[in-house]
Specification:
This protein is of the alpha+beta class. The two termini are 61 Å apart. 31% of the residues are buried.
């Protein structure tokens, strides 16, 4: 099955199709495998292309006939001329194959290109009559992926206001991927084939994406075109899957070949944070390109307990974007005291987030440690002794064993 979306803007157009082919058991009439190996946007020449949904073999015959007709009659290489001739070609081949029992599905065609004046044109046709319908404005979508139509209807005006075709294509790529994932249609998959319609002709769009998962294997996939042929590359494993036109398609046994699936995201789990630094000090001075920590603190000595120590906690971490709570805790034997709480908003993942805040540590036992940001770290550096009063200072280091200390 397929998703083909065509969007027409004042200064051009964008055609997007998935790469998934569904292998059907002719006797049982059900799918036995899916393979992301099918080219669904076919370049005819530099100014003209044909996209499709439906019976692959029939489309292959129609595309071959179209190219031969253009070779014999070059005037048909113009989108306006071919738009009128295409119904005859499609009807003839569809009817002939159906009479021989060779048509297993319906066929939808999307003809697109640049007219003489540089204006984009998009035409679409459906079997069995293939009556021409010209897209005057907005969008059209066909195939089993037409469930994205409500998303396009809601987002089209906003996308149209973006500054250029590249920005609109990028937004369509992101939005359609998210909508297909939300709907969970298994018959649509693989990397998107994307072509823009510009005054100078049609142009393929190279793209890719990367998923960062510190708790498991990452994923990075790209879609490139070389010598007129699309290639999907798994950058994590180095594996590559090329796309084939309908007349050249060779299915790899009856096994699934999946490059990208659009499945609903799993339910959100607890946020996972990754602490990169945690320092406690007396004061902190920050300027452009420089941070100075004065009197790093790892231990506190004092003659009498309890006491409250004011210091600066400086820490950095990275984690999921969104609104989250940051908390610092002072842990003691049998006790855990929250010493700081703040709501923060992280706009971009995985940028590092840095914070420095004044905190008050209630030191009431011999040993305490500070923990924060979902993970904790304690530092055991050279002891730095805070003396609470002059009398304690005068006792000197010779009697330090009388002084209780707190580590954090």
């Amino acid at each position: 099955m397929t998703m083909v979306a065509a969007c027409l803007f004042k200064d051009g157009g964008v055609i997007i199709a998935d790469s998934r082919a569904t292998l059907l058991d002719p006797k049982a009439g059900k799918a036995v495998a899916v393979q992301d190996v099918l080219q669904k946007i076919l370049p005819i020449n530099r100014r003209l292309g044909l996209a499709y949904a439906g019976d692959v073999s029939t489309v292959g015959v129609i595309a071959r006939h179209v190219r031969q007709q253009i070779k014999d009659k070059p005037r048909l290489g113009l989108v306006g001329k071919l738009a009128v001739e295409l119904p005859r070609i499609a009807r003839h081949n569809f009817a002939a194959r159906k009479a021989r029992g060779q048509v297993a599905d319906s066929v939808d065609l999307v003809l697109f290109g640049v007219g003489n004046a540089g204006a984009p044109e998009i035409w679409f046709y459906s079997s069995p009559d293939f009556q021409p319908r010209k897209l005057q404005e907005g969008f059209m979508v066909t195939g089993s992926g037409n469930i994205v139509a409500p998303y396009l209807a809601a987002a089209f005006l906003r996308i149209e206001q973006l500054p250029d075709l590249k920005a609109r294509a990028d937004q369509l790529l992101t939005g359609l991927s998210g909508e297909l994932a939300r709907q969970g249609i298994d018959s649509v998959g693989g990397m998107f084939q994307i072509v823009t319609i510009e005054p100078g002709g049609i142009r393929p769009l190279i793209h890719g994406f990367m998923e960062l998962n510190p708790e498991g294997p990452g994923k990075a996939v790209s879609m490139d075109i070389k010598g007129g042929k699309w290639f999907q590359t798994d950058l994590a494993t180095g594996g590559q899957v090329s796309l084939s036109e309908p007349t050249d398609i060779k299915f790899l046994n009856r096994q699934d070949v999946r490059m990208v699936d659009f499945h609903p995201p799993p339910p959100p789990g607890p946020s996972k944070w990754h602490l990169t630094t945690l320092l406690t000090c007396h004061t902190l001075q920050a300027s452009v390109g420089r941070v100075e920590f004065t009197n790093l603190v790892s231990r506190v000595g004092h003659a009498k307990f309890p006491m409250n120590l004011e210091c600066v906690a400086a820490f950095s971490f990275w984690g999921p974007n969104g609104k989250h709570a940051v908390e610092l805790f002072l842990t003691k034997p049998g006790e855990r005291v929250r010493i700081y709480h703040e709501e923060i908003v992280i706009e971009f993942f995985p940028e590092e987030f840095e914070m420095s805040r004044k905190v008050i540590l209630p030191i009431t036992t011999r040993t305490s440690s500070i923990r924060g940001v979902h993970r904790w770290a304690s530092f055991r550096k050279t002891p730095f002794i805070f003396w609470r009063d002059q009398a304690a200072r005068n006792r000197g280091r010779g009697e330090i064993d009388r002084v209780q200390e707190a580590s954090f």
